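Inverse folding, one chain.
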């Protein structure tokens, strides 16, 4: 099994190019199921979750070709409607194919998803909303067995809570529903807007009518399409934290700064100097880091996917900080590993009290989920000596060439078997 060896502590200096967004690519790949024509996608990140989703599409009968930075998906012979557990056990996003399969074929059998062990993340919000489009379903032996014999019919649907995945699933499904669908209390993450841009480019008729309300007029056929996926804002945020943490000087390229305004504002308040460029950001870390109170929230709030990374930075703050995790109930699993490195973090329910002025010590560590993995790398970058991070397959699910990108800006890091 592979692991990472990290030798701290160096200031990171140089430029990092941000990859395409994993969280935008996955629903877009699911949405390609609607098409019987070729789809050309650019800027897909080379990470494990994308490989898994492409394998899922192939299992359904899609033909996938990868040429340099372009992925060509041909669904002219795609007829299958069954998604096995083996394909979704490591990836939450597998459930996103349920909506398009029902829209296209009126029936589907899809395994309940796996992914990171960061909380229950039930799919009841997806299923209740799909039922309002005319879907009948049951759950049997770990599979959702669903059908809509008369096809999907548009409806007014208000989500019981804000859910990124349910919003994406319903947008895709409603695109092929008869009549008009109004979705309200929608998630408004940039990745959802990227999905809508992609679907509209295919010929769908989707528009925002207010901040969290979407109107969809159903169609029956889509066009051949070429599309470039947006940048990965979580990857960008991770490297911004790395720059701040190591008192470095990093230029983060291939991004749109206004998309991560919340993260930039918090890093400024913590004490980093940030210079905005047209397609990038320069961050200069400060030795003096200020404490903060941070609450994770749906976009445009502070993202739960950056909670572990910002926690590492706040371990260096002048006083104690508080982080309140409002999205997932089990997302402090990195705390015990950080404490083994010398951090003093106390968790109470969904709050973490992070004591400041900490010097991390090197240690052998165990990654528990995708974002926890990268937080351990960040801590190790500041520890004098060698740290070893095990179970990095979590990391490979969402970060493209992380050790190569870090090496390029001065980190001493290597992958070993």
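Residues assigned per position:
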């Amino acid at each position: 099994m592979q692991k990472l060896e990290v030798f701290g502590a160096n200031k990171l200096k140089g430029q990092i190019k941000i990859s395409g967004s994993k969280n935008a690519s996955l629903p877009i790949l699911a949405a390609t199921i609607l098409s019987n024509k070729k789809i050309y996608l650019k800027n897909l990140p080379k990470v494990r979750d994308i490989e898994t989703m492409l394998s899922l599409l192939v299992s359904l009968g899609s033909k996938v070709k990868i040429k340099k930075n372009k992925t060509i998906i041909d669904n002219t012979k795609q007829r299958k409607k069954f998604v096995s557990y083996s394909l979704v056990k490591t990836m939450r996003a597998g459930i996103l194919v349920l909506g398009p399969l029902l829209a296209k074929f009126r029936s589907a059998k899809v395994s309940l998803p796996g992914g990171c062990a960061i909380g229950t993340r039930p799919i009841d919000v997806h299923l209740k909303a799909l039922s309002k489009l005319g879907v009948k379903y049951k759950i049997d032996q770990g599979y959702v067995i669903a059908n809509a014999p008369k096809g999907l019919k548009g409806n007014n649907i208000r989500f019981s809570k804000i859910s990124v995945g349910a919003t994406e699933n319903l947008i895709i499904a409603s695109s092929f529903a008869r009549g008009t669908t109004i979705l309200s209390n929608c998630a408004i993450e940039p990745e959802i807007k990227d999905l809508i841009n992609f679907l509209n480019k295919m010929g769908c008729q989707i528009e925002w009518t207010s901040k969290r309300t979407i109107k969809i007029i159903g169609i029956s056929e889509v066009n051949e399409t070429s599309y470039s996926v947006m940048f990965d804002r979580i990857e960008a945020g991770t490297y911004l934290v790395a720059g701040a943490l190591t008192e470095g000087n990093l230029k983060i390229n291939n991004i749109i700064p206004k998309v991560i305004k919340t993260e930039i504002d918090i890093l400024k308040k913590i004490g980093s100097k940030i210079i905005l460029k047209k397609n990038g950001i320069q961050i200069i870390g400060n030795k003096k880091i200020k404490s903060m109170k941070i609450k994770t929230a749906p976009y445009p709030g502070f993202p739960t996917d950056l909670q572990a990374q910002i926690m590492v930075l706040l371990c260096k703050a002048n006083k104690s900080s508080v982080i309140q995790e409002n999205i997932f109930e089990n997302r402090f699993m990195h705390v015990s590993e950080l404490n083994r490195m010398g951090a003093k973090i106390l968790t109470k329910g969904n709050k973490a009290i992070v004591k400041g002025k900490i010097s991390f010590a090197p240690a052998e560590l165990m990654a528990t989920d995708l974002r926890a993995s990268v937080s351990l790398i960040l801590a190790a970058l500041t520890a004098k000596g060698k740290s070893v991070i095990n179970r990095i397959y979590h990391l490979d699910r969402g970060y493209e060439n992380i050790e190569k990108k870090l090496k390029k800006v001065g980190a001493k890091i290597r992958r070993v078997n």
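The two ends are 6 Å apart (CA to CA). The chain has a mean pLDDT of 94.
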